[in-house]
Amino acid sequence: MKIVKYLVLLLLIIIIGGVTYIATINGKYDIAESKVITAPNELLFNTINEYRTWEEWGPWMDESDDFVMSYPNQTSGKGAGYSWKSVSQGDGSMETIATAPFGSIDQKITFVTPMGESYSDVYWTFEPTEEGTKVTWGMKGEQSFMEKAFWATQDSTLAQGLTPMLIRGLNKLEKHAHKQMQKYTINIDGIVEHGGGFYMYSAAASTVATLPQKMAQMLPTIQAYITENNLPQTGMPFTIFNEFNEEQGTTIFSTAIPVREKVETPEDSSILCNFLPKQKVVKATLNGDYKNLQEAWAAAQQYIVDNKLELNTTSPPFEVYRTQPNIVLNPAEWITEIYIPIY
Fold first, then answer.
1. What's the DSSP call for residue 95?
2. C-alpha distances in angstroms, 166 versus 111, 117, 136, 138?
3. Where are the beta strands (DSSP E) in 165-235?
């Protein structure tokens, strides 16, 4: 019997020692991962802020066949949330506590475990960089006694368990953002009348491949001239394609900005003024990256062929840029209008 008593006493000592050891473990944690993603902070912020997008990039969404999402009426902004149920991964929910567009988002996540509910504070920061946006995703909180006991029996720590999920989520977020940036639509608006008007311009020749770089260099010079001379700008920048050699892949073009009235410029000025006539045109609109312009032009030209329209060869075609890439950073939101003059 003494042996039994000694064994019971030893067991109690072990239990008390274990409880004491677990109680002294620092349960506070702050685990975060960062990644520079070549995407604008506005797009990334809006993606995280809208919980319905999480099904497309969330790191745990495709690891279980029984993952069921539920959404309330509000799924973005402060007070928004969602919840999930999964036999294999457990149930849980997420709620947005605060947002600071387009810099940070604070959330609270709840995991339903056999040991009860577990809570963590989730935080996101979006820092613009030369390469894109530095996205940081972190989780912090304090473990309960039972949670500390659980992790004390595991081969890995809480940080080692969470870090791969954060890394996987950021990688999937990057792929999702790039996919969103590639989206585009082409709409043939049909035959319309363009109002024309005066414009300031600078002309140049280039290959089609280097055209965007040439335009980017020329446009600030024209804009500076308009600003310095207090000329009222009446519309968005546009490019007139005076000549185009498809075989050689070259073009002579004018980068232009519309103004209210005719402007007399010095003889030695590289910035000139001209007039675009009021005319009938076929209009097409590209919503998306400029790299899709060739397809948009082809669609507009096919419309002309299909409808047996006659080109007005005395007036060159042109395209108008309704958005500024330095302000609208997501290429999927760029708007370009194509105008092809017809009789």
1. E
2. 16, 21, 9, 8
3. 185-194, 197-207
Give the residues across from 206 on adjacent strands.
251
Cis peptide before 150 (omega within 30 of 0): no
- pLDDT for position 212: 86
Could you give the strand order of the β-sheet that contains 104-113, starting from the edge strand earlier in sequence?
A: 28-37, 133-142, 116-128, 104-113, 91-100, 81-85, 68-70
Place of tokens 């659980």: 150
| pLDDT above 70: residue 98 | yes
Single-letter residue type at 107:
Q
Instruction: Name the one residue in this structure whose structure tokens are 């963590």.
Output: 120
- Give the CA angle between residues 117, 121, 123 to the nearest 5°: 145
Q: Would you place residue 87 in the very low, low, confident or very high pLDDT band (cuts 50, 70, 90)? A: confident
How large is the angle between the packed helices 2-24 and 145-152, nearest 10 degrees? Answer: 110
CA–CA separation, 232 vs 259, rounded Å?
Answer: 6
pLDDT of 10 > 80? The answer is: no
pLDDT, tens digit, for every residue of 145-197? 455 545 445 555 656 778 999 999 999 999 999 999 999 999 999 999 999 99
Q: Which residue type does 323 have?
A: T
Name the nearest CA neighbour of 308 among 342, 285, 275, 284.
Answer: 342
Please provide the size of the chain in residues.
343
First to last CA, the chain: 112
> DSSP code of 290?
G
Winning range, highest mean pLDDT, from 5-14, 20-29, 264-273? 264-273
Beta bridge partners of 233: 259
Strand order of the sheet with strand 335-341? 185-194, 279-287, 335-341, 318-321, 238-245, 250-258, 197-207, 272-276
Distance CA 161, CA 99 (A): 27
Residue 58, C-beta contacts closer than 8 angstroms, at least 6 positions apart: 169, 172
The CA-based angle 50-52-53, given to 5 degrees, is 75
Residue-by-residue DSSP string for 26-61: --EEEEEEEEEESS-HHHHHHHHHBGGGHHHH-TTT
Question: What is the distance of C-alpha 276 from the center of its chain?
Answer: 36
